[in-house]
Automatic annotation (TrEMBL):
Span of domain Peptidase M24: 167-374
PANTHER family for the chain: AMINOPEPTIDASE (PTHR46112), AMINOPEPTIDASE YPDF (PTHR46112:SF3)
UniProt keyword Transmembrane helix, yes or no: no
Residues covered by the Creatinase N-terminal domain: 16-159
Naturally occurring in which organism (per UniProt): Corynebacterium meridianum
The keyword Hydrolase appears for this protein: yes
Protein name, UniProt field: Aminopeptidase P family protein
Keywords, comma-separated and alphabetical: Aminopeptidase, Hydrolase, Protease
Superkingdom per UniProt: Bacteria
SUPFAM superfamilies in UniProt: Creatinase/aminopeptidase, Creatinase/prolidase N-terminal domain
GO MF annotations, alphabetized: aminopeptidase activity
Length: 389
């Protein structure tokens, strides 16, 4: 277990535990049980490895919050952090039932007068099925049901604080520094795998503590949005999609895509068809970024990008949503997708990444992380987007 933030920001965790209570009460949720993963990290700052022994944070509407953890994992860092944020630590030994400890320490409404009338106890998405079933069995004895905690947590997590925004800005600047070094790697004859290995090292050199993904998709491989890398060799005149990201020491993520031309910046080596496709993509991405502001829906941002691409005849080649939220995980709320009615608020951070893909032939994508401000948008990635530098 490691702490994900410095001592100067300890109070943010107790503030978050307090803030979620309002959302829980609005949803008639008496308690929330969160397993290891980003939600537990968000509320405690503890990055806990998941394994078969249950570790869970329990946040209660009417009772003390507590952390159930195997005694073997309840070391000094965990004891100090839980004490700092006012969360009771309950270690459990092998042979004990952590589920019984959870039920025993839950403060639930009085069921003497007909049972609990609210929605029940919220369960976090990272709890595995075996843990969920054991918790459900215990709650049944209290006349309590289970609901998903995710939608309630999303309401809090998707609006970032100033501190979180600055962490994301630092992550964006770090991945921009990596992209600044990428063009020198894209030489004809080199394999995607060779380039990906060097990019991986660069991500760590530029301030990340871990690498989440490296996509190097050359030529037809660029038409697969979730391609990784392969032994395919780069060729002069083709596009290369480079989508990369990682985590800072704080746990906050970077994610940025640029499409490059293998050509030593010579415009004569690219076909007019591919150049037209890329120009359409550039305009669509710029238009959708410009559309970001408080009060519009996430679906509207997606529509701006989709309409611009469709108007140029490439609608069927835009095969994914326009973006996703980012924070302690690379993909989180809000979803910038067709039909989404999530209303953008200041502090929301997400990607804007339309793409155009011709399967087996060529693809391109441009991605920036943006933050909604009081009067518009702030870009967290600022490397050039043109094919010709």
């Amino acid at each position: 277990m490691t702490s994900s933030e410095t001592a100067t920001t300890e109070n943010i965790y107790s503030d978050r535990c307090a803030a979620i209570l309002e959302h829980m009460r609005e949803d008639d949720m008496s308690a929330m049980i969160l397993g290891t993963g980003p939600d537990l990290e968000f509320f405690t700052g503890l990055d806990v490895s998941s394994h078969e022994r249950l570790t869970a944070l329990v946040i209660q509407a009417d009772g003390d919050d507590f952390l159930i953890a195997p005694a073997v994992d309840a070391g000094k860092a965990v004891r100090e952090r839980t004490a700092e944020i006012g969360v009771k630590l309950i270690p459990w030994q092998d042979g004990q039932s952590p589920y019984e400890l959870i039920i025993r320490n839950l403060v639930v409404p009085d069921i003497a007068d007909g049972g609990f009338s609210g929605r029940g106890v919220g369960l976090g998405a990272s709890l595995t099925a075996d843990h969920v079933l054991e918790i459900q069995n215990g709650l049944a004895g209290l006349n309590h049901g289970c609901v998903l905690a995710g939608p309630v947590i999303d309401q809090l997590r998707m609006v970032k604080t100033d501190h979180e925004i600055e962490e994301l800005a630092a992550a964006g600047a770090a991945i921009d520094r990596v992209h600044a070094r990428v063009p020198e790697l894209l030489q004809p004859g080199r394999t995607e795998a060779e380039i990906a290995e060097e990019i991986t090292a660069m991500i760590l050199e530029e301030g990340h503590v871990s690498v989440d993904f490296v996509i190097v998709g050359s030529g037809p491989n660029g038409a697969d949005p979730h391609h990784s890398f392969s032994d395919r060799k780069l060729r002069t005149g083709e596009l290369v999609v480079v989508d990369i990201g990682g985590a800072l020491p704080s746990g906050y993520r970077s994610d940025c895509t640029r499409t490059y031309l293998v050509a030593d910046s010579d415009p004569q080596v690219i076909t007019e068809r591919v150049l037209d496709m890329y120009r359409v993509l550039e305009k669509a991405q710029a238009a959708s970024v410009k559309a970001v502001r408080p009060g519009v829906t996430a679906g509207e941002i997606d529509r701006v990008a989709r309409d611009a691409i469709a108007a140029a005849g490439y609608g069927e080649q835009f095969i994914h949503r326009t973006g996703h939220g980012i924070g302690l995980t690379t993909h989180e709320a809000p979803s910038i997708s067709s039909g989404s009615d999530t209303v953008l608020q200041p502090g929301m951070a997400f990607s804007v990444e339309p793409g155009i893909y011709f399967t087996g032939d060529v693809g391109a994508r441009i991605e920036d992380i943006v933050v909604v401000t009081e009067d518009g948008v702030r870009l967290l990635n600022n490397r050039p987007r043109s094919l010709f530098w």
